[in-house]
Amino acid sequence: MEHAAKHFRKRDAILSCLRGTTIHPSAEMVHDLLQESHPDISLATVYRNLSLFKAQGTIQSLGMIHGIERFDGNTNPHVHFVCNCCSAIMDLHQMDAPQRLCNEAAQHIGGQVDSCQLMFFGTCRACLAKQESA
Amino acid sequence: MEHAAKHFRKRDAILSCLRGTTIHPSAEMVHDLLQESHPDISLATVYRNLSLFKAQGTIQSLGMIHGIERFDGNTNPHVHFVCNCCSAIMDLHQMDAPQRLCNEAAQHIGGQVDSCQLMFFGTCRACLAKQESA
DNA sequence: AAGAAAATGAGAATTATTCTTATTTATTTG
DNA sequence: CAAATAAATAAGAATAATTCTCATTTTCTT
Prior knowledge:
The structure is a homodimer. Chain A is an alpha+beta fold. Chain A folds into two domains: 1-74, Winged helix-like DNA-binding domain superfamily/Winged helix DNA-binding domain (Arc Repressor Mutant, subunit A, Orthogonal Bundle); 76-134, 2-Layer Sandwich (Dna Ligase, domain 1), CATH 3.30.1490.190. Chain A is 37% helix and 24% strand. Chain A is built from five helices and five strands. The first copy, chain A, has helices at residues 9-19, 27-33, 43-56, 101-109, 125-133; strands spanning 60-65, 68-72, 79-83, 89-92, 112-123. The first copy, chain A, has a three-stranded mixed beta sheet. In chain A, strands 1-2 form a two-stranded antiparallel ribbon. Chain A starts with 8 loop residues before the first helix and ends with a helix. At the A-B interface, strand 1, strand 3, helix 4, strand 5 and helix 5 of A face strand 1, strand 3, helix 5, strand 5 and helix 6 of B. Chain A binds a DNA duplex through helix 1 and helix 3.
């Protein structure tokens, strides 16, 4: 059957939210961000749709950071920095994506390599400043 | 008697277990691996000591892989491959550790970079074979 | 407009991990 | 060597992020 583009308001709002932010939010952060425009959105709906988008490849998961799963609406491969102090996640677009290493990895592992993740950990500028003034 | 027993404490057994395996086990996997030599070890003890070693820097955490935290007794920086099918984690010692990228990352982020992790995801050889025969 | 299919809200269920407390084991001290 | 003190452990309860259930609402098809 032919389907026109379906319009599911809350689902769309969740995707727009992810695509419109660079904070790499968790499910709860998405829920908070949507409070103003959709005060009646359920946390379960956020979790459900994030799982769906992830399975579709529409968004990517950055994995569990400090015990909480974080998401990125930008599926282009790029490098991330995680602040161990405030759990902020920032893009490092300036750095070469390590995709070129996938083939090399595949040879060594003798399996099929689908993706890779390069992640730096440390303390962000804001948290460094806070520590100095304390 | 007391001196000899000191070397057979459960804490030591947990560390030895981690250092003697390359499967990058979770807490539960460590618990299982120790069943034969220490059938009365408690899962809480495993968790408690893994947290301790991690805080000390005696071992490293590879983060949550498919929802479960995995550990590595080898604190030397090296690259890992994760099978999305069976959750196996393998070392890629052959590949350059990306430590040299830390300085570059620090410049871009304007913060302090402590560590980094390069991880490849895909399907391991064993799981590929299983899929073909199915 | 009616019926079918999909999405949602609310809260219960799940599960990896952490915490609490009583007990056991190791270490220090007299 | 023995008493006192400190550290480690076992068992199970508590916690918290995530998933699941199901009744209801919304959207789509005819």
